[in-house]
Automatic annotation (TrEMBL):
GO terms for molecular function: kinase activity. InterPro entries: Aminoglycoside_PTrfase, Kinase-like_dom_sf. This is Aminoglycoside phosphotransferase (APT) family kinase protein. Keywords: Kinase, Transferase. It comes from Microlunatus parietis. Signal peptide: none annotated. Residues 43-229 form the Aminoglycoside phosphotransferase domain.
Length: 299
């Protein structure tokens, strides 16, 4: 296999060369894929390339960091949900690559991203998430969002990462316990949860309705679908695409939750950002900023 491949996705947290991935897939599976283009979103956690099958089908190619077992579980769930008519991509090929990552060839869904949500698209955005209600009743094996660790005492892996960060980290976990009313919150529910649900991962048709919900690179999760709407203003994509009026519409949906539950959801979302910054080996300045943000959210 050739080693001379340009790294097209340099701005991604997960830089990769689609030409190399396509070459490896074809060598190992004889799929005959042809690279046809790159997605317009080249930053973030990962990015997508576009490929064509010999029969003319158009697909998207991603290279998530998730484990093979997690990706295979995601494929099982999304393929089942797709058959029920929901606008999620069917996974067509999953392959563990030689570099330890996983290649996913998935259905390329129609539609486009919008620069800003408006009254029509924000209503569609919320309604699409509501369609995930109760979809995982028969899938107890799907884990909750990683923001709610279930393994180990206390807050599980957070105890090692954040608790091991020093006095400030331990103080943050103690504050989280207070917000959780003295007992670590375990998320319950049987909704399908997209853990990176934002306008950047939703496609719309010309009428403003949702035609695709993409980028399941973090895997599927099981719990309360409302959690997918928490923290949207805190991310760069949410800040740039959701104006105050549309955010108020989303907040009205979150108003369905009890106030103590919403506060815990917000706290867990912020604390998980700290955990991820530590595990990803981000610069100390980034970790300290995320710590400060979590402290502010729980103040």
């Amino acid at each position: 296999m050739s080693t001379d491949h340009p790294i097209e996705f340099r701005l991604s947290e997960n830089p990769w060369a689609p030409t190399a991935v396509v070459e490896e897939i074809n060598l190992r599976t004889a799929s005959g894929l042809v690279l046809t283009g790159l997605a317009d979103q080249v930053g973030g956690v990962s990015s997508a390339a576009f490929v064509a099958w010999p029969d003319g089908r158009q697909s998207a190619l991603t290279r998530p960091r998730a484990s093979l077992s997690s990706v295979e579980l995601t494929a099982t769930v999304l393929n089942e949900v797709r058959k029920q008519g929901l606008p999620v991509p069917a996974y067509q090929l999953v392959l563990d690559l030689h570099d330890g990552y996983v290649a996913v060839v998935q259905e390329r869904l129609p539609g486009r991203h919008v620069e800003h949500l408006d009254q029509t698209t924000v209503a569609a955005f919320v309604a699409a998430n509501d369609r995930f209600a109760g979809l995982l009743r028969r899938h107890p094996e799907v884990p909750p969002p990683p923001d709610f660790p279930t393994h180990g005492p206390g807050y599980g892996v957070f105890e090692d990462t954040i608790g091991g960060y020093g006095t400030r980290g331990r103080r943050l976990l103690a504050r989280l316990l207070e917000v959780d009313s003295g007992r670590p919150l375990r998320m319950h529910g049987d909704d399908l949860v997209h853990t990176d649900y934002s306008p950047g991962n939703v496609l719309f048709d010309d009428s403003g309705q949702v035609s695709g919900i993409v980028d399941w690179n973090f895997g599927v999760a099981r719990g309360d679908r409302h959690y997918a709407l928490v923290g949207l203003p805190w991310g760069s994509i949410g800040r740039s695409t959701i104006k105050p009026a549309e955010q108020r519409a989303i907040d009205a949906v979150l108003g369905r939750l009890e106030s103590v539950t919403l506060r815990s959801y917000q706290a867990h979302h912020a604390v998980h950002r700290v955990h991820r910054s530590i595990t990803e080996g981000f610069a100390r300045q980034r970790i300290e900023a995320d710590l400060g943000f979590a402290e502010e959210i729980m103040s």
